[in-house]
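lol ok so funny story. i was supposed to be doing the assay writeup but got distracted and ended up predicting the structure for this chain instead. priorities right. anyway since i did it might as well share w the group, maybe its usefull for someone
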Amino acid sequence: MRMHREEHAIFRDAFRRFIGQEVAPHVGEWERNGIVPRDAWLKMGAAGFLCPWLPEEYGGSGADFLYSVIITEELSRAGGIGFMAPLHSDIIAPYLHHLGTEEQKKRWLPRCATGEIILAVGMTEPDAGSDLAGIKTRAERDGSEYVINGVKTFISNGINADLVIVACRTEKHAKGSRGISLICVERDAPGFRRGRKLEKMGLHSQDTAELIFEDCRVPEANLLGEENRGFAYLMDHLQQERLVCSVMAQAMAESMLEMTIRYTRDRKAFGKPVCSMQHNAFKIVEMATEVELGRAFLDRLIRRHMQGDSVVTQVSMAKAWIPEMANRVAYHCLQLHGGYGYMEEYPICRFYRDVRVIAIFAGTTEIMKHIIARNMELT
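and the output, tada:
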């Protein structure tokens, strides 16, 4: 299967121009403000860069997954990872498209494509992170409504979100992964409010927040899919989620390596370029080798995912290895910048902070290894 065609290259060039005009000049301001403004989302949607894979009847262009990969790569390479459009477009919107009723899809998806609706997903809780089966948020039926009570935390797009897919317990006495449902909560739902906007080590422009549900009333028509099947739905969508995260980490590793090679060629020490010193040259070679290995593995997985193959184990391997590799690259690239790498004016400083979390969200490295070992029948 030949992945990249001429139209993909044209699309990449167009999106790079968009980033140059509408993202890169504003990232510093977004980082200081701790949020990407809604206007940026609307511009992204107007240009056709949100949910391009959606069928035309729901506001998309029916593009293949590679267009989404290109958007994620270019945002990540430009240091715009705090603009969580890939989360909105390629991780959350597919839940609506695959599980939603026709009425739900027509109601929400076109506005997801324009940026009028910003999406979030509420899974993590203060006492339930990697262990999703431990969630405590409950939704009880009251006539034609669900009444939701609970707290979600570490929710990306949490402040901006207009629609949150919330994982709740809907079966009173069910334990573990049973009795979990997905319910769509809209911004103005009674009893739904934002808690703290969380201060983080990195991704400062990403509006990560607590979400609080206190007797939050939602129409039963907002149930996504079937009641009590939510855990299975979450598991079904993790392959693409973790693949997108691996794309982010790989693109950031490539960008950090490129900026460091440029810097060490220009920077002189003891009368010669920093990159020409044997230790530094060998370190750059080691990083370049790991980055190439990551790219080869990732491209193979993207190809198989686009073919419809089940590659859960292999994607878990990528999610376990590529973000850790990107963190190694970040460490050594910052080191090769010397004191300047610690200065905010140099992009490696922000990349170093931002890449760290990719080894944590969507399943930690340790959880990925557990999944791989289980699928290999080792445990």
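The chain has twelve helices and ten strands. The longest helix spans residues 238-266.
back to the writeup now i swear
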